[in-house]
Request: fold
Amino acid sequence: MEGLTSRGSEENVGLINQGESEMGYIDDTLERAIRAEEEPFDDLDYEPAQVFFFYDISTFWVTADESYETVQDIDSDTVISPNVAGSTNRTTLQLALEEIGITEDDYTLDDVNQADQGSAFNEGRLDVGILQLVGPNLAGWGQEIVSTVDAQLLDYPDEDAETLEESEIVTDWFDREDISEDLVNTPDENLGIVAPYIHITRADLDYDMVYEFLSTLHEHREELGQYHDLLDLFEDDDYWVDTVFPEMPFHEAAADFYEEIGVWNDDWEVHN
Reply:
């Protein structure tokens, strides 16, 4: 098994379909689209099966304009960039806005690279962008934003927060200081849109290949942190299945591996 780079989770699904990759991560929005056989995922030649949890990306709306206090302050004159075009996360964020009655007709959509948001705020080209926690850590480009502008998070009115919590969209609450101590005019607790990223494969991928991959990764789990701090989390066996797709079965080899290390849940489905 060889490591490859891709342009994102949607491409990962295609690479597996084309036989150019054995495994790739997707988020929960994409998982639902695959399950619903939405285009372009209505003609896959394989049954997807999940293998292991990678990380959560938690997203918050951010602005440098103090006139914006909540997401309901967004209007047709508001220039927003919910991640870069083509990103599944962008789709999730727009779906979240639709859940609370804010459609694409209600704002001006732009495509600003995350790393360019700080300058776009300073130049008046962007009203509302995003901050993201990758796992527990603020992304590097987010750290630059909060250090260069007076960044504040947009709050959700109680009714909107309740609507999102009851929807299919994954949400969670975060303390302001756990996001960034440099945020201004921001509530102590903030609702984030959470996208769990999980590696999937084709259900008919060779059993031994999947089992050996997981076993080797697990055997060297204490060394992974030297490549990235986030990988330190894999030292905890429970982290490998911290989040699962409840409607997608596991690859048979993954299920056997997790049973062996004591983290398997019999409520989960296995692809046979």
